[in-house]
Amino acid sequence: MENISVRYNFELISKAFAVAAREHKNQTRKGTVFPYIIHPMDVARILFKLEANTNQICAALLHDTIEDTTYSIKKLEEEFGDKIKDLVVFCSEEITTGKNEQNKKNWKKRKEKVINKAKLASNEELLILFADKLSNMRSFCKEYAIKKDQLWEKFNGSKEDQFWFNQSLYLIFKTKFQYQEQIIPFLNEYKEHINYLWPKLNNTN
Asked: What tens digit of pLDDT does each residue of 133-178 get?
């Protein structure tokens, strides 16, 4: 699918990539040796294929900066404006600092907030979240092929919790996007990943 119908501000997108690469420098994906920047790049790539706009692409590249780095909301707004700032904030979770055990207890509450937020999201917001979670699912599947159920040990949420979260989001994405032709193949891919990762838990189409 070639993206020829959307006009992009490539200068702004390049700036967003540069900021993301700088802020995520020396970070790796959880439990792997892979540079973290690969993930926001993949999210942006998915959105390019779905003909998302410049603000969405920039937000995709920056979506983990205020959550996982020292980059501030104030700095984000100064450099990219209100719209991109608002999209990044939408994609960010509230993180409770403290002991790992406390983070485990807070995990489900945080994910419930994500689900509730997704239910009320605009199409523009939800498409970024969809691309983010699809990218995560791709990474899960690659690791699961090697580690099997040991994959879930690195997360605060259990295998069953992870299924609940990703299946809940899938149903929201499906309800919102199932009649948008260009998104259907990506929805189907998301569902295939769920079937692969949780075959014994999944019985919902």
From this structure: 999 999 999 999 999 999 999 998 999 999 999 999 999 999 999 9
pLDDT tens digits, one per residue of 108-134: 999 999 999 999 999 999 999 999 999
> Does residue 101 carry a catalytic annotation?
no
Please report, in angstroms and rounded to a whole number, the separation of the first and last CA atoms in the chain.
Answer: 26
Which of the following is catalytic: 11, 64, 67, 93?
Answer: 67
Between CA 104 and CA 195 the distance in angstroms is: 25
Query: Among residues 68, 86, 161, 189, which one is catalytic?
Result: 68
**Do residues 61 and 84 make contact, with C-beta atoms less than 8 angstroms apart?**
no
Told to judge if 68 belongs to the known catalytic residues of this protein, a careful annotator would answer yes
Q: What is the pTM of this model?
A: 0.91
* Two structure tokens written together for 66: 């205020």
> Which pair of structure tokens corresponds to residue 25?
């420098």
